[in-house]
Each structure stands twice: as C-alpha cells, then as structure tokens.
Amino acid sequence: MPGWGPPQSPPGKRTGLIVGVVAAVVVLLAAFVVTGFVTPGFLLPSRDGSGTAVDGGAPVTSPSEPPSESAPPPSGNVTIPTTRTPEPHRATPLPDPSTCSFPADPNGPAAKQATRPTDGPQPASGTVGVTLRTTAGDIVLSLDRALAPCTVASFVSLAQQGFYTGTKCHRLGVTDLQMLQCGDPAGDGTGGPGYTVPDEFFPGLAYGRGLIALANTGQPGSGGSQFFMMFGTTPIPPTYTVFGSISDAGLAVLDKVARGGIASAGNAGDGTGPPRIPVTFSSVAVG
Hints:
Blueprint: H1 25-35, E1 44-45, E2 51-52, E3 98-100, E4 120-122, E5 127-134, E6 137-144, H2 149-161, E7 171-173, E8 179-182, E9 211-214, E10 227-230, E11 242-246, H3 248-260, E12 281-286
Antiparallel strand pairs: 1-2, 3-4, 5-6, 5-12, 6-11, 7-8, 8-10, 9-10, 9-11
Organism: Amycolatopsis saalfeldensis
Transmembrane segments: 16-38
Region (Disordered): 43-129
C-alpha cells in the first residue's frame, strides 16, 4: 500500500495498504475469484476507494465497486500537490524506551532472510537520518522514533544489514493513490524479511505528501520490510504505521519518477504498477 490494496489474510507474503471495508470473508473470496487474483499479499488502497493488495499481494476489491479498468495517465500528465501533509504527533507519548518484539513471519520462508532485531526496549525519542541511494536519485528520510520506535528499529536494522541493497520499488500510483512502494526483495510485492513488525498506527492519522509508512497485509502485526513513500494524495484509513518524513530533495526525486509514469498496469486493478523510471537501491545509509 502501494503495489497492493488492503490486505487479506493471505497465504502469500505481499505487503499492501487497505482502502475500503469488506463486509465478509465470503465477499472477499468472491472478489478474488471475479478479478482472477489468488495470491494474497500486502495491501494499499485503490483509486476508487476499494481495497487492493499493496505489497505485491492480490488486490481485494469492494463488492460494490469493480476494479478500475482505466489506464494510468500518460507520462508527464500527472497532477502532484506541492503542499506537504503535516507530520503526525502522538497526543500521548509512548513509554521511552518502548518494548518491541519481532516474531517470525508465519507465512513461510523469506524471499531474503534477515536477522531479526533484538526483542526488548527500543528508544522512543529522537530521529534517525537515512539516505536511500537509488538509480533515480538520492532520497533522504528522517525516521521518527517517537511515532514508531519498533518500526524505526526494524528499518534501521535492515538498512545496516544491507537488506535493501539491490531491491527495486515495484509499485507506483500516480492518480488518487500517489505513492511509491518499495522494500520487497522478491520485487513483486510478495517478499519480506522473515519476521513481522508490530502495528504502531493510532487514531487520527492522515496520510499524504512527504510521509513514509509501513505496508501490511491487512492482518494485525503483519508489517515487514515493505514501505511506501507518499508524494501526493493518499486517501487510506489510519491502519498503516507512519514512521518518518521525506526531504524536499527526496520528494523532487519521487515527483520525477511519478511524472515518468507507470510502465504497465499491475494486477492490483487500480491503475498502479511498476514505475517507468526504475528505482533500484544501490545502498541505504544510516546517519
């Protein structure tokens, strides 16, 4: 969410954002059959407000709204807002340090096995600078431990292990869901690090330009390595952990990628797909 729509309890490992509410499991299964998708995954919301697997998982559509068949806009014809979404803040600060646990992913072997962060206390204050060096340009992030100490600890650990090096961003949305989804070692939205990250979202979260959030499968505590960077409109429910912000220079890189357009519409059925301008991580530097 990001390459997938809202997550379904999937046997697969795709990561995505959930946009929309599905009334029953039967309806969800029916949606999979009708749309031809059988592999669940990480989800992100679709352009029409329906759920769509985001991290590479199959999209889940609303029973009242079929998947969008419209093609993404041509390169360059993308409207991108220039105003940043305010960075969220917790009304009640988390305990500092906060206790985190990173259980093994129940969905099977990882596409690329990583060493799990140590369970236990993690700092819940301060920020961490991260530079994503990509084939499209450098994207500098500021990760906020006060927002999501466990998510930041996991991201920093993966970066320091070289987990993200060589991976590509597999899902771009340029219309209503304006984000770039990355972090999957499998490159198709189904991969993860072999462990899960606890949810750290909270009521009232608003998503949009300049924020970075963790993708999930729609199931509790199903985050992993996949994340999405928002450069524009992102109308999704507050069920994705926001853990930092993107620099102005980083947003300029994302804007360039967005204006380059989508190479081909993916299986999400919501107009998202791989970016025409490839975004592959050559390295991820912490500090």
